[in-house]
Structures are given as structure tokens and as C-alpha cells.
Write a structure and sequence with these properties.
The chain is of the alpha/beta class. It contains five helices and seven strands.
């Protein structure tokens, strides 16, 4: 599977990066995250999709949105940021959030720094950038 995640328990953040995004991979990844013993439903989530090759039709996006709503039990205090690079990624991310229609506050960003500001992550905390870089350069998942 070409996706990964990392939970930074001390910051209450789940980082997710995917190189290739299919409906089945996304659903498996969500299952793995929720089953991780370090997962807490009050954590914020950053999806880094800047280097992602999307392989999702609109029906896939609707299915993934419903799946996220059912299996990623976030609440209205959570923030879910999706970071994109291209207009195609941005459109698919917005479609996913519209289909997800979950309780957390959701936002799509074209800049990682703006996502950090929105999430109240300090520029001085390099752990997030370091772990995102690590995720971007590996092929398999790992966790805390």
C-alpha cells in the first residue's frame, strides 16, 4: 500500500500522506488509523495530498466521504486540513469534504504553512514537518 500515517500524540495530530489514492487504499488506511492504540477521536488530522496521484471517480469520492463519516469518529472540536498542490487535487479534496459532511471543522489549503497556522501548530515545532517529510519518502505505513 502506498500510503502512510503518523500519530504525534503529544500534539494531538494525525498526519496522513498518500502517494496514490484509491478508494480501497483510503478505506484500509482509515481502518488502520482507528485501530491504532494511540488514536484518539479528539485529535486533529492533516492529509498531505500535495504529491498524490488521485485515482478516484466522483462515485469513489462519495463512497469515501460516507466511509469517513462512519468510521473516522471525529467531533465538532476537531480540525481536518487537506493540503493540495494542483487544482485537480483541490477539486477532489473539496468534493470529498462535501461528501464527508462530518462534524469537524474542515479546510483545504494550497500551502502547508497556512494549514499549520489554522491548526495552531508552531513554526518552531519541526516534528510535524520532519514526520511529513519522512512519510513522503516511504512506501509503507508506520505509526507512533
Amino acid at each position: 500500500m502506498k500510503c502512510g500515517y503518523h500519530i504525534i500524540e503529544s500534539l494531538g495530530i494525525i498526519l496522513i500522506h498518500k502517494k496514490k489514492c484509491t478508494s480501497s487504499e483510503l478505506k484500509i488506511l482509515i481502518q488502520e488509523i482507528v485501530q491504532n492504540p494511540f488514536f484518539k477521536k479528539d485529535f486533529n488530522v492533516i492529509f498531505d495530498l500535495r504529491n498524490t496521484e488521485f485515482r478516484l471517480t466522483f462515485d469513489d469520492i462519495k463512497s469515501c466521504g460516507s466511509y469517513l463519516k462512519s468510521y473516522l469518529p471525529l467531533d465538532e472540536t476537531n480540525k481536518l486540513a487537506i493540503v493540495t498542490k494542483s487544482s485537480e487535487q483541490t477539486k477532489k479534496a473539496i468534493d470529498l469534504l462535501l461528501c464527508y459532511n462530518g462534524k469537524p471543522k474542515c479546510q483545504v489549503f494550497s500551502d502547508l504553512e497556512r494549514a499549520f497556522i489554522w491548526m495552531n501548530i508552531s513554526d518552531k515545532d519541526s516534528r510535524v514537518k520532519m514526520r511529513l517529510n519522512h512519510l513522503r519518502h516511504q512506501e509503507s505505513y508506520f505509526h507512533h
